[in-house]
Every structure is written in structure tokens, then in C-alpha cells.
Amino acid sequence: MTKHKLPFTYGTKIRFILTGDCTQTIRAGSKFSVGDEILIYSWSSKPYSKRSAWINRTDVVVTSVIPIIVSEVGIKFPLAYDDHIFSWTHEMINDLAKLDFIDPPTGLALRDVLIDLLKLPKGEESDCQIIRWVFKE
């Protein structure tokens, strides 16, 4: 088990995390595992500024980690669907956007958020994880 600190800067998502409505995020890399503990927080003002304090802190435990590969054309789920790419307009990707509290809750909006977050160069792919959790008791 590893302990992580995980900032959230996406709009009002932190509010939905605190109420327990949102229990998922998508992050680059492969550093999270089931059983890991995460301190989730947001910032009082501009993220990473010396004058910005951590606020809205909560502790969660990772219950599920799903590896994915993000590209400009869609998402692959290598452990479940081999090399099939689900396009950004596919119903499953739209559902993923809803679970991640993307606004608007569509695969196309999720694409924009992820490609911006990952700074994904045109034609490249990025290994990511869908991380799901419960509140730590």
C-alpha cells in the first residue's frame, strides 16, 4: 500500500468528491494500485501558488484501477478489449465522462480535458489509469 497526495483543479468536481457522488478520476501513468490511500485536496486560489493553501481535504482508499490508453481518436482498454479503440463518441466513453463528472458529460468533453491535461502530442498515446475509491474509515 502506498500513500499519495492528489490535487484536483477541475471545476466543481471536488464538491462532488466531498459529497461522495464522484468516486473516480483518470490520471496519467500507472502509479496507483488497489488498497493505496489518497489524500485528495483542492486549492484556496491559484494552484501551486505559494499563497494558496490546501482546502477541502479528504482521505480515500483505492478500490479499483483500470489501465487505459488515451489517444486523439479514443480510449483503449488493453486488459478487456485487446486493441479495440472506443471512439470519443461511443456510449461507453460518454458513461465514463459522466462518472468522472466532466461538464458537459460527454466523451468529446472528456477528450478535451484529458488531451489538455496530458498535453498529448498529435498522433501519440498515453498510458493512464481510471482510479476508483471509497472514503477511508
Structural description of this entry:
This protein has 137 residues and is α+β, with helices and mostly antiparallel strands. It has one domain: Sulfate adenylyltransferase, CATH 3.10.400. Helix content is 23%, strand content 38%. It has 4 helices and 7 strands. It has helices at 13-18, 78-81, 91-99, 107-118; strands at 3-7, 24-28, 37-43, 54-71, 74-76, 85-87, 125-135. Strands 1, 2, 3, 4, 5, 6 and 7 form a 7-stranded mixed β-sheet that branches. Strand 4 and strand 5 form a beta hairpin. Helix 3 packs across helix 4. The longest helix is centred in the last third of the chain and has 12 residues, at 107-118. The chain is globular and about 40 Å long. It starts with a strand and ends with a strand.
Number of strand segments: 7
The CATH class designation is Alpha Beta
Can you tell me the residue ranges where pLDDT is under 50 for at least 5 consecutive residues? none
What is the percent of helical residues?
A: 10-25%
Helix-and-strand structural type = alpha+beta
User: Cα distance, first to last residue?
Assistant: 16 Å
Q: What does the main sheet amount to?
A: 7 strands, mixed
* Amount of beta strand: 35-45%
Radius of gyration: 15 Å
Integer count of domains: 1
Question: Could you spell the SSE succession in H and E letters?
Answer: EHEEEEHEHHE
The number of helical runs is 4
